[in-house]
């Protein structure tokens, strides 16, 4: 089974988005597993700054040599910052998914939505389930 980097203290979604919470600000990006599945990322269609988003809305799309994948907002709120660096260097997501490869920051309007996200332990267990299912195919 391949080991993927899962950062402690972050929250995760089943769509392989990570969330870092600081007060009412959520920074989001694609997990290590997610970027591995995509392969080399060649383009990121970033969300609009100041856009209001609902949990589950498509806020970005990521194009790799393999496929185009949509990024869903894990939380409801307003996008207050986007990572413009990805316009020039989309590969940041591959090289540093939890650092320089972040996608957007959302000012949360409903912090209780965090309870719907997975903890790092939950996400590790989820990845193990995925790996087992793939081995059985």
TrEMBL record:
<dbReference type="InterPro" id="IPR011053">
    <property type="entry name" value="Single_hybrid_motif"/>
</dbReference>
<protein>
    <recommendedName>
        <fullName>Glycine cleavage system H protein</fullName>
    </recommendedName>
</protein>
<dbReference type="InterPro" id="IPR033753">
    <property type="entry name" value="GCV_H/Fam206"/>
</dbReference>
<dbReference type="GO" id="GO:0005829">
    <property type="term" value="C:cytosol"/>
</dbReference>
<dbReference type="GO" id="GO:0005960">
    <property type="term" value="C:glycine cleavage complex"/>
</dbReference>
<comment type="similarity">
    <text>Belongs to the GcvH family.</text>
</comment>
<feature type="domain" description="Lipoyl-binding">
    <location>
        <begin position="25"/>
        <end position="107"/>
    </location>
</feature>
<dbReference type="InterPro" id="IPR000089">
    <property type="entry name" value="Biotin_lipoyl"/>
</dbReference>
<dbReference type="InterPro" id="IPR002930">
    <property type="entry name" value="GCV_H"/>
</dbReference>
<dbReference type="GO" id="GO:0019464">
    <property type="term" value="P:glycine decarboxylation via glycine cleavage system"/>
</dbReference>
<dbReference type="InterPro" id="IPR017453">
    <property type="entry name" value="GCV_H_sub"/>
</dbReference>
<comment type="subunit">
    <text>The glycine cleavage system is composed of four proteins: P, T, L and H.</text>
</comment>
<dbReference type="GO" id="GO:0009249">
    <property type="term" value="P:protein lipoylation"/>
</dbReference>
<comment type="function">
    <text>The glycine cleavage system catalyzes the degradation of glycine. The H protein shuttles the methylamine group of glycine from the P protein to the T protein.</text>
</comment>
<dbReference type="InterPro" id="IPR003016">
    <property type="entry name" value="2-oxoA_DH_lipoyl-BS"/>
</dbReference>
<feature type="modified residue" description="N6-lipoyllysine">
    <location>
        <position position="66"/>
    </location>
</feature>
<keyword id="KW-0450">Lipoyl</keyword>
<dbReference type="Pfam" id="PF01597">
    <property type="entry name" value="GCV_H"/>
</dbReference>
